[in-house]
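Figure S7 source data.
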Amino acid sequence: MNYDYLIVGAGLFGAVFAREMKRRGKSVLVIDKRNTIAGNIYTEKRMDINVHKYGAHIFHTSDREVWDYVNDFAEFNNYINSPVAVYKDELYNLPFNMNTFSRMWGIKTPSEAMAIIKEQADKEISRMKSEKGTDSFTADNLEEQALSLAGRDIYEKLVKGYTEKQWGRDCKDLPAFIIKRLPMRYTYDNNYFNDRYQGIPIGGYTAMVEKILDGITVLTGCDYYEFVQLEDGAPKTPFTSVKGDTFGKILFTGMIDEFFGYRLGTLEYRSLRFETQDLPDVDNYQGNAVVNYTEREIPYTRIIEHKHFEYGTGKGTIITREYPATWNHGDEPYYPMNDDKNNALYARYKELAKEYPDVLFGGRLGQYKYYNMDQIVREALDMSRSEG
Ligand SMILES: Cc1cc2nc3c(=O)[nH]c(=O)nc-3n(C[C@H](O)[C@H](O)[C@H](O)COP(=O)(O)OP(=O)(O)OC[C@H]3O[C@@H](n4cnc5c(N)ncnc54)[C@H](O)[C@@H]3O)c2cc1C
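Tokens for the predicted flavin-adenine dinucleotide complex:
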């Protein structure tokens, strides 16, 4: 058959793009190498709980068009992300707000909190200036940056261990720019996000993506590299599948460096390992969907209790421990490492992609950029518009 578009990846980007092109009267075929749709927002139902298989996903946006768009495919609940941080035997609310400061220092008012943070930060800056023998202060690493912004208590208890686990490196060996700001909220507000709209699709993300893909042919368990005819590591033109289907254009949402056979080098990622436990005899394990563990000695960064995303009250629960991991070839690439070295390499791949004007690259792997879900929907809508 002759299709206008081959869409590689049935994640959120591929699904929205496929739907929008179909709506414009184009013929589309979607393939995904996984046996499931929805990419990393895939949820699977067990024990009447929607398990976020590839990590906790909370939809949040200030983009009204995007919010209206996703609400056409799912009803969203009123979930507000309010994570809790555990440091040794102490519990703190996140993001850093008056509840956090009150618990840390036994104070009540914003002015008391501001004074303590300023005093601690100033003390660290003076110490570092005198150690460096300079009059002006510039942070040389992430530790210095965080201490100069938040003071020692917040850094030691809530930033240091968590960040070191996330990056697999000591804060002294991490660049300062990773933490440009440490947002402090001087109100008693535990809502993690500042966005206007927030929630979880009732019934899970897979059901939402299923609806987006309604009426579109999706082949799962189908790897692009086995599906299309390749010539010198690139798709043969006209784009043709091994079975003889032809395609006018390709939207590729997999890894851009892999698409080009890594000929310019390999882009790096941080990976994650998830350890999920079904607890049929425990109804409420931690009382919150997301609990962060900020001590370095605890190897995971957080525990997710999935039922709380949808206010579940049934029997049993399911939890997932999230362990940051070094990425090696073949591992799941979760977070692009958008440092100078990798961004420069990506720019060269982007340049190379210009030689293939009929191949579009989309999503977090195709564009090598960390995108939240709302940004993915926005990008996919914009791309479909520019395709006409
Ligand atoms: C741990 C974690 C937590 C997150 N939490 C949030 C959150 O709370 N809120 C939020 O807004 N965003 C969150 N995100 C971001 C969110 O996951 C992404 O925005 C979204 O999943 C990206 O969609 P995508 O379609 O670009 O990529 P993906 O979901 O990765 O989809 C790409 C698809 O392409 C397929 N594919 C790749 N290569 C091939 C190939 N060769 N052949 C066929 N198919 C292929 C893959 O199998 C995959 O299904 C989080 C991300 C992570 C990693």
